[in-house]
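Attaching the record inline, Q. Sequence:
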Amino acid sequence: MVLGFLASQLLVGLSRAMILFIVSAGLTFVLGVLRVPNVFHGSLYMIGAFSAFSIATQLGHHPASVWVAFLTAPLVVALIGLAVERTLLTRLYQREHLMLILFTFGVTLVLNDLVKLAWGADYRSILPPPVLQGSAVLMGVPVPRYNLFLLAVGPLVALGMWLFTHRTRIGKLARAAAVDREMVALLGIDVNHVFAGAFLVGAYLAGLGGALVAPSTSITLGMDHTILIEAFLIVTTGGLGNIWGALLGALLFGLTQSLGVLIWPQFAIVFPYLATASVLLVRPRGLLRSVW
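Structure, as predicted:
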């Protein structure tokens, strides 16, 4: 029973790590390609959760309603992110990082107010798809099926990002722009289109993370703040712009938080921050190579 409880707790931490990875992968991709510290990335995550709630609610109790929400909510968020990038952010790419941080923080305030106007300040929630409701027994301890589903989604997203960056033209151009954007422009490639595609992917991943977390937590205003802090820590720990580094950072963050619950529940939230701080003391540039 002790081993079963330990295993179930670690699985919960791993499932949390998969959500963190999906959101952090979008943030680190934008950081790596555009060199933009996107502070409203957390707001896109929150919009993804609220959008999933609205879509699932509008479709009613149909068994496929939540699956449709998982598919369409990230697309809605991606279009919102692209609209902001094309109309506003594209004018500031040559500015210093402080200006970009202040601008994206301002966008956060605007998006949060729009979310409050659209959905109000009440807590919302949705149920997982019927097939993922309930628990599976692992070593005599019940483990939520939805957590097991998240454990499968995370690696699929990592594989999808690898295929996108290594097997598609825009992905290869994004990698090249991350290394030397001036050279890419000299070759006749419209770097603005590459940036738009990269930001679209980053926003989509933020929305996907929000949609996937909706059945496992309360959907409310302010849920963007915590995820943003955690995502920036994960990205910094893993290596700026490195997708696999984001995965390692998310695993470190999620597992240490689960172990903290087992070791010292009152201060469990401190453990992942201590772990990331320890890594940065030893490797200031992160676990894996940074593209910066």
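The beta strands are 135-138, 141-144. The chain has a mean pLDDT of 90.

More tomorrow.
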